[in-house]
Structures are given as structure tokens and as C-alpha cells.
Amino acid sequence: MQKPVFLAGLPLAALLSLNLYAQSPAMGEFKQFYKNGQYAQAISSLEKIDNTETANGEKFYLLGECYSKLQEFDKAYLNYDLALKAGNTHEDIYYQYGQALYAANELKKARAAFAESAKRKFNTPASTYYVAHISQILEEYPQAKDSYTALIKDKDADSKIKQIARFQLAETILAMMREKEIAPEKLEKGVEKYVLPLMKQAYKTDKSTSVANDIQQRIAEVQKEFNLDPNLLANGKRISEKRYSAYIVQKIKFDDNITLTNEENNVTQSKKESYIFESEVYGKYDFVIKKKFIVSPEARINFVQNSDQDSPEVYQNDTYSINTNLRNKYEHTLFAAPASLLFDLEYSRNYKDWQQKHTREHYADSFSYGLGEIFSYFSVGDTSFKVKFKDYKGENTAISNRTTSFSADQTVLLPIQHLLIAFFEADYIDNYNNKTTNTNTYLTRFDYIIPDIIPSYTLDIALASTITDTKEQKAARGTEFSLNPSLDLSKQVSDKFKIGVNYDFTKSNSRQADYKYTKSVFSTEFRYSF
Length: 530
Prior knowledge:
Layout: H1 25-35, H2 39-47, H3 58-69, H4 73-85, H5 93-103, H6 107-119, H7 124-137, H8 141-153, H9 159-180, H10 184-205, H11 210-225, E1 244-255, E2 259-260, E3 268-269, E4 274-285, E5 287-289, E6 293-306, H12 312-315, E7 319-334, E8 337-352, E9 361-375, E10 383-394, E11 401-413, E12 419-430, E13 439-454, E14 457-469, H13 474-477, E15 479-492, E16 497-509, E17 517-529
Antiparallel strand pairs: 1-4, 1-17, 2-3, 4-6, 5-6, 6-7, 7-8, 8-9, 9-10, 10-11, 11-12, 12-13, 13-14, 14-15, 15-16, 16-17
């Protein structure tokens, strides 16, 4: 049996006191052969020496060293045994004896030798490790457990051997659990409570070692065996190991026709142009509960500043908003495939320069809740349906409204790895304090996404159209229609940093001049993700 690579042979103890053999030609010959690595010749030289010429079995000790070098371990341990019987006192002899016995598969004798080596405090960490490891091989798990635990507590043991000890202790505990033949559900809980934490602690001890790679693979195997993979949900869907997402975004836009809107979807033009500086901070964390529920609180802060501070119809769009959402998913199966039932709660508080005083003041609050379902009916991609109810209350009561929305989207992964997304949304807006401004809008949008159109570059070509039923204003405005093509090119500069440029064009048709307009928006985006 070969020695574990991570505990390869230690430096030899002093071969012997040279003064004892100063007059021995055979010993001089031996020293030269040994120094040159000619171990077979060194053995021949030692054989010329009579056993009685050496004190305390030195000849047998040196023969054991040479046979070990030649990996003739059966002869090595026999000579170490003779040396011990002759009273040899080299500090490393029990350790070397144990190494030879271990390599020759004389496990119980090897364990006893290593135990004696540890007792004599020679290379205690390695000696203790061998005692534990051999006990583990012999399936004598309580002794293995005690020895691994002692090694972990040993202040003289380095981090690498402690890493291995923690890992093997976890394996030992797992073996003990299996041996007891406990119920599957109790075994699963035991693995989750004791085995996996030890393995993860072993991995974190030093992630750079080759052993760490083996530990990581073993963790994945154990998680799979006991259905404990934290990133594999009960319905078979795999989620990201990273539970949080956060980013900061800075956008710089140029809008050649600032449009005015007050959440009624009654959009009018200002015929003014301006640069717009938009900053955003976003954060979210996913809490996974029993591998079936994902609760995701998220927060977003948005700040918008227009460069044109001379035109009231422009700078009245300076805003500051705080958005807090609680997104919830119940993971299940539908059509024999993973699916997600959605329940979302959203709250937003908005500040705006709505009184045109160069001051952002409280403008409106909104609360929304929605239900939805994401499933895979078609093999090409996911399908989703959602319904949402929104209550919007403004400081100006004329803009307060309730909106009911229905939406659906379908993703299609094309054979060339391009992505097509089709989206439809219908919004029914009830401005209950000013019903003449009620509208129904119907949005259809298509996105065609080409990843790596150039290495690290992603191109998104989109086309959206909106039909607005102006209801009681139809005589003046008619049924309005807008067309909105856009182009977005982004580059992933690094794992965390992305930049993008965008062109967005809108053409809106209406019977009424203020609602009929065209506009172009050019923007640059800098995004840093955490």
C-alpha cells in the first residue's frame, strides 16, 4: 500500500553516530553509497558488518531505511522490528516502522506503531493522522473519529493536514450514520447538520489546495445523494449559488422632445430637448425556504435630473423615487416541467418637481400586488402570464388612479443561440377622480437578442407598439398608436462592469396635436454589479 501523497516521507533521522564506525571500511562504503542514492549497494555494504559490531540494532535500522527507499516495505518493516527488539532509540523509528507496515498493508501493526510515535511526540500530527486513517480503513469508526478530532485540536498541526482531517472526519461520521442503518429522513437531517458543515469548513480552510477541489466535488456528490443541493429546487430547477444581486447604474441620455406624463398614460410633448442624468441603486436577496419557496425582498432608488433647468415643462420631470418590493415564488411542476407561481407586492414613493419650484416634493405613492405563473409548455422557452392591480395616489387627486394589468410573454431560444422575446401587456386605467381621462392601453413588444455578436458584446434589437383607447376623449384624440423601435449594444467589460449605448425612437399618432409627436433618445449606460 502506497503512502498518501500529502504525507510523503520525512527527513531521515541521524543515520548513526559516525564515531562508532570511524574504523569500519564497510561503514564508510555504506555512507558513500547511501549519499549517492545507491541503496542496493548500501545494503550490500551493511551486510558485511557483523550484527554484534553495532550498538542498539543500528545495522537493522539502516537496513530498514534502505529497503524503504527501494520500496521493499516487507523487508523494511522486518528490519525495523529487529532494530526495536535490539533497543534502537532513534526518535523516528516508530514512525518509519509504521510507514513500512502501512505500505506493506499490515494495517493493525502500522496503527500501533504510529500510536507509539504520537505518544513519543515524534511528528505528532502525521502520526495521529495515520492512526485515524487506518482506523477508518479498518471501519473502526469511533477510534477514527476520536483521532481526527484530536488532530484538529492539535496546535502543532498545520492547516493542510487539518483540512484533510476535517474532511475525513465528515466521511467517518457519515459512515457511522450509515452503519447504524437509521431512517432515511433522520440520515438526511444528520448529513445536513453534521457532515456537510464539516466538509464545507474543510473546503474553506484553504480553497487553493488540490484537496479542496476533491472536497468540493464530494460535497456536490453528498448533496445530490441526499437531496440537499441548496441550488436545486424541489421541482428540479437549478438556481444560482449567489443569493444576492446588486448594482449601481449611471445613465446619460439626450432626449430631443421631452414628454410629459403623470401616470395616466396621457403622454404629451413639450417640444423641448434636454440631457438627462439618471442614477439608480438596486439590491435584492433571495431567501430559499424548503426548496419550494423563494422570498426576494428588493429595493431600488432612482434619481433623475434634467440639464435644462430653464424650461418648467422639462425640469418638472426631475424626480426621486424609492421602490421596495417583495417578490415571492412557489416552485412546482406544470406540464411535467418546472414552473413558478408568482405573488408580488410593490410599494413606491415618488418625489417630483411637479410644482415647478426646482424642488422635488412628494408627488405620489403607489401600491401594487400581482399574481402570475411561469411555466414551460413549449420546448423552445418559458411562458408567463401575470395579472397586476395597482393603486396610485397623487398629491394632485386628479392623477390618482387604479390600474388593472394583464401581461404575457414568451421566450424562444433559437438554434443559433439567439433569443427572441415576445411580450404583451394590457393596462386598464381608471382615473376615478377625473374619469374623462381614463384610457386602455395595449402594448406589444418584440426583442431579438444576439449574445456575443462580437466577443463580449450583446445586441438587443427591439420593436414595440402601443395602442391607446382614449375612451371619453376619443372624439378629440381618436385611438392613438405609437411605434417604438430601439437598439441596444452592451459590452461586458469584466465580471462586474458593463457599458452600453442605446437609441430609442418613438412616433406617436393622435388627432390632437399635443399627443402627436416624434422623439429620439440617445443614452449611454455604465453598470457595476456586486
